[in-house]
């Protein structure tokens, strides 16, 4: 069922942007909210991000990663005026929807996205099994191969048995320091 473009109800809409311009677009939209002319018409923009763990040069770092590359969510009352304002924001390539009709994002979906954004502890995704052979990609054992002996999903750690000097030596590694062998 098509939504009437002029119904004036408040909803979230997805706009597509040039890649890498998501934060600039959200900033521009939020900057326009200071103008009293837009009060009650546009309520805000957000770039959905979640915390993830990254290892660089052997150091573990928590970084914010965009959930939807190239997209920004805008809460507004859709009208020709607000459509025009958002559509002509630098970096915006269009609204997500069918034809020329922007499709509102369901409240259920927005709640899911906000919940995902609000998780303070970064997610560990461990796609390995015990006895799987892996290659170590970072740290003092870089270049070695080993067999996974233990998996600690809560901490994102693996115990890998590395063959050194003719014997298996257990090494505790971050799951991001190994990769599967094809």
Q: What is the straight-line distance between the termini? A: 47 Å
Looking at the structure, what is the overall shape?
A: elongated
> Total number of helical segments?
3
Overall pLDDT: 85
Largest sheet: 5 strands, antiparallel
Q: Structural class, judged by helices and strands?
A: alpha+beta
Task: Specify Rg, calculated over alpha carbons.
Answer: 23 Å
State the share of residues found in helices, binned by percent.
10-25%
What's the count of strands?
14
- H-E order: EHEEEEHEEEEHEEEEE
Strand content bin: 35-45%
Report low-confidence residues grouped into runs of 5 or more.
1-5
Description:
The chain is an alpha+beta fold and 182 residues long. Helix content is 17%, strand content 42%. The protein has helices spanning 22-32, 80-87, 107-118, and strands at 10-17, 42-46, 49-56, 59-66, 71-77, 92-95, 97-98, 101-102, 104-105, 133-136, 145-152, 157-164, 167-174, 178-180. The protein is elongated. The strands form 4 sheets. Strands 1, 2, 5, 6 and 9 form a 5-stranded antiparallel β-sheet that branches. Strands 13-12-11-10-14 form a 5-stranded antiparallel β-sheet, with no helix packed on it. Strands 3-4 form a two-stranded antiparallel sheet. The protein contains 3 helices and 14 strands.
């Amino acid at each position: 069922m098509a939504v009437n473009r002029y119904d004036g109800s408040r909803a979230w809409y997805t706009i597509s942007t040039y890649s890498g311009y998501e934060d600039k677009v959200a900033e521009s939209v939020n900057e326009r909210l200071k103008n009293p002319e837009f009060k009650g018409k546009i309520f805000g923009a957000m770039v959905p991000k979640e915390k993830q763990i990254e290892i660089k040069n052997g150091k573990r770092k928590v970084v914010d990663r965009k959930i939807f590359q190239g997209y920004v969510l805008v809460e507004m009352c859709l009208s020709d005026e607000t459509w025009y304002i958002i559509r002509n924001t630098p970096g915006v390539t269009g609204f997500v929807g069918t034809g020329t009709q922007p499709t509102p994002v369901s409240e259920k979906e927005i709640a899911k996205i906000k919940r995902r954004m609000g998780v303070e502890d970064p997610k560990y995704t461990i796609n390995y099994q015990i006895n799987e052979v892996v290659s170590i990609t970072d740290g003092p054992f870089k270049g070695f191969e080993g067999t996974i002996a233990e998996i600690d999903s809560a901490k994102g750690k693996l115990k890998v048995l590395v063959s050194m000097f003719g014997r298996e030596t257990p090494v505790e590694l971050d799951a991001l320091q190994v990769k599967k062998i094809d």
